[in-house]
Amino acid sequence: KNQVEQSPQSLIILEGKNCTLQCNYTVSPFSNLRWYKQDTGRGPVSLTIMTFSENTKSNGRYTATLDADTKQSSLHITASQLSDSASYICVVSGYGNNRLAFGKGNQVVVIP
Amino acid sequence: DAGVIQSPRHEVTEMGQEVTLRCKPISGHNSLFWYRQTMMRGLELLIYFNNNVPIDDSGMPEDRFSAKMPNASFSTLKIQPSEPRDSAVYFCASSGGGGRMNTEAFFGQGTRLTVV
Fold this sequence. Notes:
Number of helices of chain A: 0
Shape of chain A: globular
Radius of gyration of chain B: 13 Å
Oligomer: heterodimer
Strand content of chain B: over 45%
Order of helices and strands of chain A: EEEEEEEEEEE
Distance between the termini of chain A: 37 Å
């Protein structure tokens, strides 16, 4: 079983609407969690990185939350734009073992 | 800085041929990572280097895969012989975190490999 599960696998939203992506993980002990945005044909670009003590972090219209107790994270996109169409990948780092666990991504399509 | 530079962007080769993918990390970064991405498996870490030394190659799928980093500004990932199941996008990333995985990695544009 994958250590990082993302949902929904894909979604389509209207331009201007909000959406929330989910990431559940089992990595333990936990070090940090990152959300990456990957445009089609490009490499992933980091949006946020959150450590154990952080509950929320924003990057423009992107807001990530983390509940280390339930091992859940979400990425909220506010007032979506066409340029938000991309795959959003959740990556979890384990503490002390220097390994990364990757989710398979949430594919977001924003339509006008 | 131009970012992480990978070449070629696209590679189509016949099964059994040798394939070499190249990466130039961001100047000053001391960690370099090779990833493979497919629809089925998502992103997978193949190997990473710290200060040109391979630290963890447990993600390398089999002996047909090898990676080298002869100096701080260049790395290669070689597949010999290539097989159709190797078809994927291969990403190189670099970071300045000294090998720690909790520092941000910057990705190249990737090499799309197709083995026919």
